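Re: the pair you flagged

First of the two:
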Amino acid sequence: MTGVSDRAGSGGASRADLVVPGYGHGLRDVVRSRYLLKLLVQKELRVRYRGSVLGLLWSYVKPGVQFVVFYVALGVFLGLEQSERNPAGLPNYAIYLFSGIVLINYFNEALGNASRAIVSNGGLIKKIYLPRELFPIASTWVSAVHFVPQIIILVVACLFSGWSPTILQLAAACAGFLIVTMFAIGLGLLFGAVNVYFRDAENLVDMLLMVATWASPVLYPWLLVRDKLGETFFLIYQLNPITVAVETFHFAFWLPTTERAEAIPPNLLSLWIPVALVTSGLMLIIGQLVFRRLEGRFAQEL
């Protein structure tokens, strides 16, 4: 035998058709495998609520309890809620708080689940080959399913507060959701791949999620950051895509119920939303590159 032919017979595949086993086409394979993605999402939901009495109602209970705790501690005890005794506080602080909580909860759940998705599905990955990106994406999709009931509650609460948003404000909220989704998927792909080789990645993600709620203006107005730490630090603070995303939700849901336009960062629409979209997009690309670099040995490492 003198060599390998470019085609193995008249019905064979060319060298260009062959691929290294264990490698796919990245996120493009997720689009092509939409049916598999749907099955994985359904499986995740069934497994998560197996044996649960409340089931999907936990999507209402958990953020509700979280909201009450933060509202009493910060709005009442620390005086962030505007009142007759505290006119300097934020009006409709309950709307301000909950609009940030629903978005940061979505990010925390999406990133936490995506970073563990590969290890959690190790048994399936070792048995058959399918696009491995499906697992972090499915986990993010499940988080989006849990996000829907929370956003419905937020909209209803806003309507009772006289909510009358503009098209621009609603578009900003959609941009905020897109920013968080891309950022969570990018980080999820990155940490999900690293976690296969170094399980310390899970602990690092837990630390990041613990900090995330306080590193963005979910519980407090951005004015406190500027007043306490100055304009220079505030510029750095705004480079965090989650900060910008949370402010887009305040702009869309809280601002139409108040007259406190100064509580929204300047240049949010013209500068910071485009910057956050680019930053999240770059994070998505980096996460995908690292994931594809490491996925070849997932089955062996698991």
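Second of the two:
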Amino acid sequence: MAFNLEYTSKHRDVTYAMTVVADDDGELGIELLGANDRGTVVAEGALRLPPGGATETAKLLREALGAIAGFEGKRIRQSVGNANQRWTRDQDITLREAWLSHPPTAPATEVIRTLAAERERTPAAIRARLPRLGCDPDVTGRVLTEETAALVGRDAIAG
């Protein structure tokens, strides 16, 4: 499927324009041009990506540009490896088992942080997923009852 996308952004006196063109085979062409208010080109570059190469290239560029921004004294918020990825049935099963394996005395926030790091998810994603698996996100090792499910929200299911 062929398509063209154009993005622009302005920072201080430089306007950046990015054009993405996909051909019928799925190959991507990406061109970047940055010009100041006087029309002087201050940034330019081009990439050619094979079909299916955009996701990994985007991750690589984000990491590289984040590191470079650090040299400029800026910080780019890094995303977690599996952020925005769908949960699989196996992931749900192992998360539920891991949560229920902890004693109720274990601090929930620490367990959530550990589970998040192991799964390359954010703590918020883990906490949001637990009720959907029938787990009480406030007490480790505990399943939701009908009463606690009603408090946690509409997506909570007793398990």
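The first strand starts at residue 3 and ends at 11.

-B.
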